[in-house]
Design goal:
single chain; alpha/beta; Aspartate Aminotransferase, domain 1; Aspartate Aminotransferase, domain 2; 15 strands; about 40% helix; binds ligand C6P
Amino acid sequence: MQTSDYRPLDVKAIREDFPIFTDTSFAYLDSAASTQTPHPVVEAMDAYYDTYRSNIHRGIYRISEEATDQYEKARQKVAQLINAPRTSQVVFTRNTTESINLVAYSWGSINIHEGDEIVLSELEHHSNLVPWQMLAQRTGATLRFLEITDKGLLDFTQLHDILTEKTKLVAITHVSNVIGTINPIQSIIEAAHAAGAKVMVDAAQSIPHFHVDVQQLDCDFLAFSGHKMCGPTGVGVLYGKLELLEEMPPFLGGGSMIRSVERDISTYADVPAKFEAGTPSIAEAIGLGSAVDYITQAGLASIHVHEQELLKYAHSQLQDFEGITIYGPEPHQKAGVISFNLQGIHPHDVAGILDTHDVAIRAGHHCAQPLMKKLDVIATARASFYLYNTKDDIDRLCDGLRKAQTIMIRRDK
Ligand code: C6P
């Protein structure tokens, strides 16, 4: 994790970039689901719609060339953000889910066979589980799971036993969206490679929060979503090693992904176009490029340190609540997420009462039902932080929780 660009965040100035925070009483604590959008990102998309809206990679006229140029610049910005060796290794998709499905269908169709094993962890979001279940069902491969300890950390002692010559892929989250655990991804990648397996990193909850360098990690694939990093919905990223992307068959067929088309057969374009069939999310990709500028200017090291402070503060405030269970590891072992339950109150009630207090959190299974089972709960309440959150937001969360306990305990009597 680089700290070279660290300087304290000017959170007051940052909040002014987000029109939604003009309402100063609103505590938005659900950025792990989707972040808010700063004004420069909306402006970048507005500029496309107002001044050069057109399709890309096909129009021989000025505004189409401008649109193509801005779309490709966004790709360059994303490549720089993750330190991809080449810009062409960045494929625009709709979201993390689509990126993972792309790999499961395309790479999986030529590399996974009956008897092969795919290693996942108990922390996975359904997006990094269901596509591999579907692949296993199609091919006769088997899924194996790295378990977590009582503290919510991966049980590293299992890693070397679970990785065998049968392991073809390790598909693992960098950061748990439920309990925030930051996995030791570099060590996992090294161990997987030593066993001859490829690694797919679900970086949906890491890329927005700290520096991730794909060359340093040496991961084979990495996926993330624009809407969790101040960008718009409808655009995501798949990074892949060039030789893997080149050998993979297309995922979707149609316009833009071809080199030539005959009546019965086609040849395909080079990467990334091979994986970007049809008209892509143009404004959204341009917006994502602007979001990359935004979080880079704030500084990813600064964002990480700020979130760590908020997490420590949240832990210190929440742990005093009667009947609270906080899930997952200590603040320094996780990214900006805190999951908890209050004894005797369903997390949906907690979230509903907090909403009447102008505090937005998420409650539910967080698209991680196997993890809920492991934690022996049906749901949790989850507060998550980003660069615009303050300790005041956490104080409001605590006030709302006190209110929830008062209401629900009174009702129970
Ligand atoms: N997690 C949350 O509230 P999409 O929906 O494709 O943009 O992202 C899917 C996804 C994949 N992996 C992880 C680790 C994630 O956290 C998410 C999205 C949101 O936790 C919405 S369920």
